[in-house]
Structures are given as structure tokens and as C-alpha cells.
């Protein structure tokens, strides 16, 4: 299923999330552990679940590769059927403060206690490339700070050890300190900031194209 940027607002996101969560038997009080080939996609889903109101969401450090390398049990074939949840058990979204629209993000630019943080590759941040073949505008939101990412729009190796596990919170904090991204300040960022102990976090949904047009 391909989503157009205009359809990926928070209301549409919640309709999709509510249906998917119920289908997989997930309630607000279900502990969820996410993994993938890398942590990139799993972190995005974790943010959506937290926004929806799932209280306990975790990531498997190192993802599938770490599990496979440890030679832990695996299964093949059709997965076991999951009993759908009759009810999420709480209003959705449970944590609406975790998502900002473009006007709210704009407001962060004028606050001394806040940072609008770009999690994009350096070539994207500096305007060398948009990062995507279908996005022509290049550049960055004026005033944004670089939170690092990876070599291109599909990688996040700045946050990873060579084995694919996440770098320590101390390493990441030191990396961010160079761009004045500090604990205690509010910011529009990604889930990794939460894991590193920076508390007041929000995500600005939408892609680079939407931000280039609207901010």
C-alpha cells in the first residue's frame, strides 16, 4: 500500500493504527517488542504505538540480525493465529503530544528551550540531495539542528555499533552535544532520543517534501 503525503495526517494514521492494533491483539496495556532487519522501520512503528497509547513499547537491540547471530529459536511457515483485541481499552491517541503538525513545529524554532532536530543524512541536511528520486526540493528547515542519521535516506548507521546494536546513550549524547541538542530541552525528533534519556520529545509527521513546502 502506497500512501500519499496528503493522506498521512495523524487522523488517517490513527484509523490505520486502531485497525492494525486490534487485528494483532494489541491493547494499551500490552507489552510490545518490535524488531526488523534493522531498527529503522521498527522505531517508526514504535513511535506510532506510543502515540496511539500503548504504554510499554520496546525495540530488540540489533533487530533480527542479533537474534539470528545468537542462534536463538526461529520458526518457519504460517505464523500462529492471533486473537484480535475486542477493544484497545483506552482512548486513541493516548499521547497526542508526541506528534506535532507543521505550525507547532514552526513554533519550536523561536523557543530558546527547544530544538527542531533533523534526523537526515549530512548530504540531505546540507542540501546536496533531497534523498529521494521523487522529491525535487533540496535543503533543510531554516534553524533546524542536525541530529545525524546515516550515509543516505535509508540508513541510520550513525547510531549503530558495527554489529548493528545501538550505540550507548553516552556516545549519542556526545554526538548531539556538538549541535546543542541537550537533555531537558523540548524537540521534534525520533524515538532514539527517548532511549538516550532526553524526555520532552515530539515527532513531526510527514516527509521531507511536505516540510519543504510548508515550513
Instruction: Give the strand order, joined by hyphens, for the main sheet.
Output: 4-3-5-6
Query: pLDDT average, as an integer?
Result: 82
Please indicate the percent range of residues in DSSP E strands (runs of 2 or more). 5-15%
CATH class of the largest domain: Alpha Beta
Outline: globular
Total individual domains? 2
- Termini gap: 27 Å
Task: Return the string of H and E elements.
Answer: HEHEHHEHEHEHEH
Q: What structural class should be given to the helix and strand makeup? A: alpha/beta
The CATH architecture of the largest domain would be 3-Layer(aba) Sandwich
- The helix content is 25-40%
Question: What is the number of helices?
Answer: 8
Q: The biggest beta sheet, please?
A: 4 strands, parallel
Radius of gyration: 18 Å
- Please count the beta strands (DSSP E, at least 2 residues each): 6
Q: Which stretches of 5+ consecutive residues score pLDDT under 50?
A: 1-8, 188-198, 208-215
Instruction: Using the coordinates shown, work out and report the CATH topology of the largest domain.
Output: Oxidized Rhodanese, domain 1
Describe the overall structure:
Its EC number is 2.8.1.1. Keywords: Repeat, Transferase. This is Thiosulfate sulfurtransferase YnjE. It comes from Leclercia adecarboxylata. The protein is an alpha/beta fold and 215 residues long. It folds into 2 domains: 5-94, Rhodanese-like domain (Oxidized Rhodanese, domain 1); 100-214, Rhodanese-like domain (Oxidized Rhodanese, domain 1). It is built from 8 helices and 6 strands. The chain has a 4-stranded parallel sheet. It has a two-stranded parallel sheet with strand order 1-2. The chain is globular. Residues 1-8, 188-198 and 208-215 have low confidence and may be disordered.
Amino acid at each position: 500500500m502506497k500512501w500519499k503525503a496528503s493522506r498521512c495526517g495523524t487522523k488517517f494514521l490513527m484509523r490505520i493504527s486502531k485497525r492494525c492494533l486490534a487485528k494483532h491483539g494489541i491493547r494499551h496495556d500490552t507489552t510490545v517488542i518490535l524488531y526488523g532487519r534493522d531498527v529503522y522501520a521498527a522505531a517508526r512503528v514504535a513511535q506510532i504505538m506510543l502515540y496511539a497509547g500503548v504504554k510499554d513499547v520496546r525495540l530488540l537491540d540489533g533487530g533480527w540480525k542479533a537474534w539470528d547471530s545468537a542462534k536463538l529459536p526461529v520458526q518457519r511457515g504460517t505464523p500462529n493465529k492471533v486473537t484480535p483485541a475486542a477493544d484497545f481499552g483506552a482512548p486513541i491517541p493516548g499521547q497526542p503530544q508526541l506528534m506535532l503538525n507543521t505550525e507547532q513545529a514552526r513554533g519550536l524554532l523561536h523557543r530558546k528551550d527547544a530544538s527542531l532536530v533533523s534526523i537526515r543524512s549530512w548530504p540531505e541536511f546540507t542540501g546536496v540531495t533531497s534523498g529521494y528520486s521523487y522529491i525535487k526540493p533540496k535543503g533543510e528547515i531554516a534553524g533546524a539542528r542536525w541530529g545525524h542519521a546515516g550515509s543516505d535516506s535509508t540508513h541510520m548507521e550513525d547510531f549503530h555499533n558495527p554489529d548493528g546494536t545501538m550505540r550507548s546513550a553516552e556516545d549519542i549524547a556526545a554526538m548531539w552535544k556538538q549541535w546543542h541538542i541537550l537533555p531537558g530541552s523540548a524537540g521534534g525528533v525520533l524515538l532514539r532520543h527517548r532511549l538516550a534519556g532526553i524526555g520532552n520529545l515530539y515527532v513531526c509527521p510527514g516527509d521531507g517534501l511536505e516540510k519543504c513546502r510548508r515550513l
